[in-house]
Amino acid sequence: MIASEPREAPVLAVLCGESRPPDMRAVESRAVVRYTDAAGLSEALSGADALFVYDFLSTAVPGAWHAADRLRWLHIASAGVDPVLFPGLRESDVVLTNSRGVFDDAIAEYVLGVVLAFAKDFARSHDLQREGRWLHRESERIAGREVLVVGTGPIGRAIARLLRAAGMRVSGAGRRERTGDPDFGVVHESARLTEVLPHADYVVAVAPLTEHTKGMFDARAFAAMKPSARFVNVGRGELVVTSDLVEALTTKTIAGAALDVFDTEPLPAESPLWTLPDVLISPHMSGDFVGWRHTLVEVFTENFRRWRAGEPLRNVVDKTLGYVPSGNQGAG
Prior knowledge:
By secondary structure, the chain is of the alpha/beta class. The protein has helices at 25-28, 41-45, 61-64, 87-90, 104-119, 122-131, 154-165, 193-196, 219-224, 242-250, 292-309; strands spanning 11-15, 32-36, 50-53, 73-76, 95-97, 146-150, 169-174, 178-181, 185-189, 202-205, 230-233, 256-259, 279-281. The protein folds into two domains: 2-102 and 291-309, 3-Layer(aba) Sandwich (Rossmann fold); 104-281, NAD(P)-binding Rossmann-like Domain (Rossmann fold). Strand 6 (146-150), helix 7 (154-165) and strand 7 (169-174) form a beta-alpha-beta unit. One of its GO terms (molecular function) is NAD binding.
């Protein structure tokens, strides 16, 4: 079947999970599209010109890479690219693009939501409601509280803008220290993280996963935080040393955590994080708003049009850095 496919149209392999991406008609009219699951990826990659990793949590690409004999472009339907950024891709000439920009505002809303949930003690109110108990308490204000957003890409910036609008005082931590940033004001150097953590009431992790950021939130980082600080992770689970986080929560080194991502997903049933007090858990859904799958396909379709027309692609990832550098997200 593959041998009879017309070569005048590019061949696109699409790695799917349980369902195919929606609204692919515009692409299907201009390419030979091979939909596949992880088991069939090697066959689908043979002779393919491009790969759309719609199942962005899949780890199947490295194992099938040997079959990518004419691949020129790989697009992943997420902002994070760590599932596909392995040595074979790094060392190749294949262009890597991501779906930067789709989830920014939704994740920012999630972060504001959990900040409010902590400050207003919503979880406790819900528990008391179920028990039929009337227990008056006082809640916290969020205005004027200090937030450190670790990761200064577009998601971090959307978080900073929304929290500032709510009256919070926001700074950032990134690769380079600077002042006068339009969203963060001050950006601290991530290498000096433990020096700035003691000032934050909320610490939000949204950094990309790289060799420099993996495990950056460890026992030393948690020990540097205020005992009243809350930790929010909407970046990658591997940014955190989970055992150190559990210890910090158990010993009340920090006051609480809102966690949307984990180093093992789904979170194992035996994980103590499920039952620790003052921990909010969501199943990697902070950016998944109604219609997000259609938006992901729209982003890919526009890049596919550009690719076919020989125009610059949007969201080209620097494979050395592991993310799209500022200013290189593409035109439009």
